[in-house]
């Protein structure tokens, strides 16, 4: 890796806290090395308090771009010069591009495109589809908005009545007024309505994190009759690679049971493209990081 670095090396940052556990630096640096790109990717512990200075640092140092994670995904917006349509609608940014390295910072949100590309890679097209989506927190909102931008016929959001419910109401409003997609919101506790919605959908997306620690072993669907041979089940969780929901979906013959590894890789690949103009070698990265789990 150090052999690659030179006086011309372009830097991409990741600003968040806590961030040392993140897979992103290794993912991006491995991809730069594989393609022989003169880039380096480094993580910086940055919270809301340091954010303004960090963004100025990106401008001052000509850092090519950055990824952004919690707690900065929303807080960074006032410091940027421009937002992509998806970032503007989602109200969150996970990728910043320093246009031509000249200090004009554009915010993007690649979580939703990552999810849609992960589905497309499995042969699943969201256009004109009726889709039930559980959970409209950070990941769910990005996915809901992207489904709207990519022409889904209906997005039916189900959320428990927690702090995310109000955000889900706003997401539904945005989808109904700013895209061609019809959106609705219901209480996830209303199991009858939830199962009925899935019965009328071709794709079910779980963006709640149920099935991951500390809710490992739990799942939102408990009636085998809900799983049909023409239903695609997509769980955004990538660890474990097979959640209880995906195990149940496979056992009862769902058309596809897709985990969050593809979403994770493709959101990174979208950022990689924005920062370098090159396509991330996704198959190489998938194999390197996830091996058999990704299959
Ligand atoms: P968040 O806290 O912003 O949202 C959580 C959502 O789940 C909310 O809608 C909340 O109402 C709902 N929820 C919480 N507890 C619940 C419960 N017990 N039952 C039903 N619903 C419940 O979190 P987030 O950042 O959106 O992350 C959600 C999941 O998505 C996590 O598992 C995270 O790892 C995963 N994720 C995956 C990727 C990827 O690339 N694959 C990217 C981002 C997030």
Automatic annotation (TrEMBL):
Which GO biological process annotations does it have? amino acid biosynthetic process; aromatic amino acid family biosynthetic process; chorismate biosynthetic process; shikimate metabolic process
A Pfam match is Shikimate_dh_N
Q: What protein name applies here?
A: Shikimate dehydrogenase (NADP(+))
Kindly list the positions annotated as binding NADP(+). Answer: 135-139, 236, 260
Q: State if Amino-acid biosynthesis is listed as a keyword.
A: yes
| Reactions catalysed, as given in the entry | shikimate + NADP(+) = 3-dehydroshikimate + NADPH + H(+); L-quinate + NAD(+) = 3-dehydroquinate + NADH + H(+); shikimate + NAD(+) = 3-dehydroshikimate + NADH + H(+)
Which family does the similarity line name? Belongs to the shikimate dehydrogenase family.
Question: What's this chain's function?
Answer: Involved in the biosynthesis of the chorismate, which leads to the biosynthesis of aromatic amino acids. Catalyzes the reversible NADPH linked reduction of 3-dehydroshikimate (DHSA) to yield shikimate (SA).
Q: Which InterPro entries match?
A: Aminoacid_DH-like_N_sf, NAD(P)-bd_dom_sf, SDH_C, Shikimate_DH, Shikimate_DH-bd_N, Shikimate_DH_fam
Q: Which EC number(s) are documented for this chain? A: 1.1.1.25
According to UniProt, this protein's pathway is: Aromatic compound metabolism; 3,4-dihydroxybenzoate biosynthesis; 3-dehydroquinate from D-quinate (NAD(+) route); Metabolic intermediate biosynthesis; chorismate biosynthesis; chorismate from D-erythrose 4-phosphate and phosphoenolpyruvate: step 4/7
Q: Which residues cross the membrane?
A: none
Going by the record, the broad EC class of this enzyme is oxidoreductase
- How would you summarize the oligomeric state and partners of this protein? Homodimer.
- Active-site feature positions: 73 (proton acceptor)
Q: Where is the Shikimate dehydrogenase substrate binding N-terminal domain?
A: 14-96
């Amino acid at each position: 890796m150090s052999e690659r670095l030179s006086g011309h090396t372009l830097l991409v940052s990741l600003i968040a806290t806590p961030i040392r556990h993140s897979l992103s630096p290794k993912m991006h640096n491995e991809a730069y090395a594989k393609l022989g790109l003169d880039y380096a990717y480094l993580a910086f512990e940055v919270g809301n308090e340091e954010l303004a200075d960090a963004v100025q640092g990106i401008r001052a140092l000509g850092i090519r771009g950055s990824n952004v994670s919690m707690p900065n995904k929303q807080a960074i917006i006032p410091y940027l010069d421009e937002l992509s349509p998806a970032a503007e609608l989602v109200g969150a940014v996970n990728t910043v591009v320093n246009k031509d390295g000249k200090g004009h910072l554009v915010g993007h949100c690649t979580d939703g495109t990552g999810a849609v590309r992960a589905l497309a890679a499995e042969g699943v097209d969201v256009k004109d589809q009726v889709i039930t989506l559980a959970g409209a927190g950070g990941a769910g909102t990005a996915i809901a908005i992207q489904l709207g931008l990519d022409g889904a016929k209906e997005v039916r959001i189900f959320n428990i009545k927690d702090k995310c419910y109000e955000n889900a109401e706003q997401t539904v409003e945005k989808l109904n007024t700013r895209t061609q997609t019809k959106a609705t919101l219901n209480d996830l506790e209303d199991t009858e309505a939830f199962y009925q919605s899935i019965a009328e959908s071709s794709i079910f997306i779980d963006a709640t994190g149920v099935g991951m620690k500390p809710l490992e072993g739990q799942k939102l669907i408990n009636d085998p009759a809900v799983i049909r041979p023409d239903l695609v089940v997509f769980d955004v969780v990538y660890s474990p690679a097979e959640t209880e929901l995906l195990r149940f979906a496979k056992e009862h013959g769902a058309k596809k049971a897709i985990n969050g590894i593809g979403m994770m890789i493709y959101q990174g690949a979208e950022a990689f493209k924005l920062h370098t103009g090159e396509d991330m070698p996704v198959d190489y990265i998938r194999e390197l990081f996830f091996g058999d789990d990704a299959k």
